């Protein structure tokens, strides 16, 4: 047997790559198009609750063809109390595999990948589903994926007003200041949900609640807005789907089942079903269904996170790492 090597990128390597906003969004948009064209295999995520703390592990699996031509498995821990020990709430590891023979190809730190690809899915969703002249962003949540949500959305829309909020002032105040420094524009740290969300053209709900609690009120949503809730625990009212012109998800297979998710109650109540679902995001990116068609449509996009996004962004990072000679190569067999 010929030697088998695996590429390894740790967090420092990934930081050194300095992936641009366009590179991140481009990788995710391409993977969504492949999904829409049926060139992928994805299985619903599974969860492991270790019983040792307030948290769980997500295991995501998928395979993608085309130029990427890889299978992958990502394991990411989601522990809400990690801030108390100065740890991020999520740690992740991505394993890429040869989808033709099963041989391992690469191991990457996936904590940063998770944040970037989630922000990119949010941004791609807004590219196709938000009004083109959207100028006000309301963002709930200040940890984990929140930074890349705001950064990548602003790279597409150049907002006139960005509002952020989360449960703790010690979280959302530094978050706003970091965004101001990196984006070069004012960012408003609001003290409550309503002033953050009400009247915004694009609303992102990425809260870190302990249990489902209807914190985001349907009456605050502006007609014609795009709303993207994806917190692990639901923070929206059951009536939210009633005002929507279109309901879009990233993958119906993983949205319709499982214990967690911001619209879990809506699925169980039949408000989000195969009959009420408008499209998966990949169908829209691939041009099989139109996205936003009028300025008056109020649209909801729920993304639970795709293994395909991790695989695509991991592949893009590996290709750039090879060009820049970043990372390590390890003998596997």
TrEMBL record:
It holds the Pfam family OCD_Mu_crystall. InterPro entries: NAD(P)-bd_dom_sf, ODC_Mu_crystall, ODC_N. Transmembrane segments: none annotated. One of its GO terms (cellular component) is cytoplasm. PANTHER family: KETIMINE REDUCTASE MU-CRYSTALLIN. This is Ornithine cyclodeaminase family protein.
